[in-house]
Amino acid sequence: METGKTSRYLKYAIGEIILVVIGILIALQVNNWNQNRLAIQKEKVYLENLKKELTNNIRLLQKTDSVYSIRKKNTIRGLELFKNNPSIKDFGVIDSLVRTNWTTFEVSRSTFDEMQNNGSLYSLQNKSLREQLISHYILGERYISAFSEINSNGQDIAYNKDIYPLSLLLDRLKQSPQKLQDIDTSWIHRPNSKIYTGFFRKAEYYKTTNKIRRRVIADFIESCKKLIHTINSELEN
What we know:
rod-shaped, mainly alpha, 6 helices
């Protein structure tokens, strides 16, 4: 103070403070940049995994669809035989055609569930993609329930006690020699009988629900493809 150097030291101190503040700001900026880089990398990994799961879902559902395609065609053929004045022994063929599969609607969603549980889903930069993902898996849940309901109702129809005589006939047709004399087969040509209408109801249910299953599968596959397209666009950006 005596030599008049106060202002010089004050300026020096202020300069030091400014440099420290600038250093802190730069460090924060670098840290934020690094955190953002890591978040982008993590999001990219999740998106790639989602693509793999969606592609796998498409592949599995296409296999299931091919099964129901065959079932649908066979059931139509079986119904035609049934309506065309069949013989007793024709029922072995008719029964082999009028079938369905009690499969469930399989949807792999482990990546989506992980993202939902750890919050990564809600930190996606593309909000439209996030909404599309949520809608897609809600659709999957709805179709899982639809398949389950079809299976439940269908098994009630398929194993109705009214068509027990048909099961007995089919068992006898598989035996050698076939013993049909002691069982009632007159219902085959009586459209108003409970057995006839019970079998017809079962066949029609299989025919209708096989068609519904295929439509559901096709709709979900299309949703998978649209989602993959959106994810690809996001990854390119």
